[in-house]
Design a protein that fits this description.
Structural class: alpha+beta
Oligomer: single chain
Strand content: 25-35%
Number of strands: 17
Order of helices and strands: EHHEEEEEEEEHEHEEEEHEEEH
Largest sheet: 9 strands, mixed
Bound molecules: uracil
Length: 236
């Protein structure tokens, strides 16, 4: 038995707060009776409906994909361009947790666990993401500190981060950057603000998940331990 809020959030009806609203509105039924907030149900046995429509409960799947360049993190694309969901099994349907830009490569989680996805994306939990960033120019020593302390962007100052030199050439530098927010194009904007355009961007780690030997375009299912660690990272 699980709380109805959790079952509905996992089934993709929105955050736990949002599904509480659905229950309060009286549009959720369990075995024909209007559900109450806090009620528990068995998603395998009970007939759970929202506005009369049966809620489909799939087995939860979790994939880690090494996203190649050129693939979009959307579920639908009006121009029929290549999408990350084309690289993993079609059934049960999964969706990417957050977004990587089309030209960004690396670790991307895909799942049908809407509840966990909402939690991982919630700004409160500060799930860490590590990027390998190649920029144009030689990064000045003081700029590592600026990246770490916080960069003023249009949508506010960035949270403390970790920046480390990896290697450099005549007119480029590769660093690793660990951030704990997920704002749109955040890494590119942070480096641009310091005068270094990003040439390539690759996500090495997402929370506790590491790509390991996974090649670009390949995916694997998460182990039970990884799912547990992931759930822990999305908790207070
Ligand atoms: N930051 C970016 O700028 N782009 C990404 O794809 C991910 C993080």
């Amino acid at each position: 038995m699980e709380r109805l809020q959790k079952i509905l959030a996992e089934a993709g009806f929105g955050s736990r707060r949002k599904v509480e609203e659905l229950i309060k509105k009286g549009i959720v039924t369990v075995n024909g009776e209007v559900a109450e907030l806090g009620q528990k149900a068995d998603s395998k046995k009970d007939d759970i409906r929202v506005l009369g429509k049966a809620v489909s409960i799939n087995e939860k799947v979790y994939y880690l994909l090494n996203k190649p360049e050129g693939f979009l993190c959307t579920v639908k694309d009006p121009y029929n361009r290549a999408k990350v969901i084309d690289l993993v099994p079609k059934e049960p349907r999964v969706f990417p947790v957050g977004r990587l830009d089309a030209d960004t490569t690396g670790a991307l989680l895909l799942t049908n666990d809407g509840d966990l996805s909402n939690q991982l994306l919630h700004p409160r939990y500060h799930v860490k993401k590590t990027y390998l960033v190649k920029v144009a120019g030689k990064i000045k020593p003081e700029d590592y500190r600026r990246l770490e302390i916080g960069i003023q962007l249009e949508d506010g100052i960035t949270l403390p981060a970790k920046a480390n030199y990896i290697k450099s050439g005549r007119d480029w530098t590769v660093i690793s950057l660990t951030i704990s927010e997920g704002r749109k194009r955040q890494v590119k904007r942070m480096l641009k603000a310091l005068g270094y355009p990003v040439l390539t961007l690759h996500r090495q780690k997402f929370g506790p998940l590491d790509l390991g030997k996974l090649q670009l375009g390949q995916y694997r299912s998460l182990s039970k331990d990884e799912v547990r660690l992931l759930k822990e990272s999305a908790r207070d």
